[in-house]
Write a structure and sequence with these properties.
Rossmann fold; 217 residues; alpha/beta; elongated
């Protein structure tokens, strides 16, 4: 008998778990010997190291294995409805108590998993520092490939704009001066050009950021 293609899906109680489950089901179902193991981890209020060997059962911290199984069943039904001719993978539900990333990596190693699927909320800055990054740690520690699933419409409060929309005054000035002036009076202070480079005669070539549609401001 061929070794099953083992996929471990790490989920949490949040709405993003449906996306993780859908991706994990599709990946496991793509292999005729696919096997899906769904894991939900509860973090104890008191670090396990304080009371070694006295780890409370998952249900005492709020994990309901039966509810988890129902969630998996619902996603399987949705997958089967969309792809009625594709076989479904065997699904096993696991619950655990501990540090989520450590528990995910341990289960993947214990099952000799071929793939791990985790979600990420796109937290950055202080929130990422305080809450940590389970997906990042799993990627670093897992001994098999890891698929990180992220929602397109993740919570707006977690977004950090990397490129601000162009300032209308800056765009107008760039267009009027053919790129010779990049910043309006309000933004000149923030974008002072500290260096001037001379590499041949480039006087006729506008700076690469002159396009009014580019970022700035």
């Amino acid at each position: 008998m061929s070794k099953p293609f083992v996929v471990v899906a790490a989920i949490d109680p949040g709405p993003s778990s449906a996306l993780v489950l859908d991706r994990a089901i599709a990946l496991a179902a793509a292999d005729p010997h696919g096997e899906l193991h769904v894991l939900e981890v509860a973090e104890p209020q008191v670090p396990v190291a304080v009371y070694p060997g006295l780890v409370p059962p998952p249900e005492s911290i709020g994990i309901d294995a039966e509810a988890l199984a129902k969630r998996c069943r619902a996603r399987l039904d949705a997958f089967h409805e969309a792809r009625p001719f594709q076989s479904l993978p065997h699904v096993h539900v696991h619950t655990s108590v501990g540090l989520p990333a450590d528990e995910v990596v341990w289960l993947a190693a214990h099952l000799d998993a071929d793939l791990v699927v985790v979600g990420t909320h796109g937290r950055r800055g202080l929130k990422r520092l305080l809450l940590g990054s389970v997906s990042e740690k799993v990627v670093r520690l897992a001994g098999c490939p890891v698929v990180v699933v992220r929602e397109k419409g993740h919570e707006a409060a977690w977004r950090v704009p990397e490129i601000e929309p162009v300032c209308p005054e800056c765009a107008q000035l760039r267009a009027a001066t053919a790129g010779k002036e990049l910043w309006c009076e309000r933004h000149k202070v923030r974008h002072a050009r500290a260096h001037v480079y001379h590499a041949g005669d480039r006087s006729s070539v506008p700076p690469p950021a002159w396009d009014p549609s580019g970022g700035g401001g």
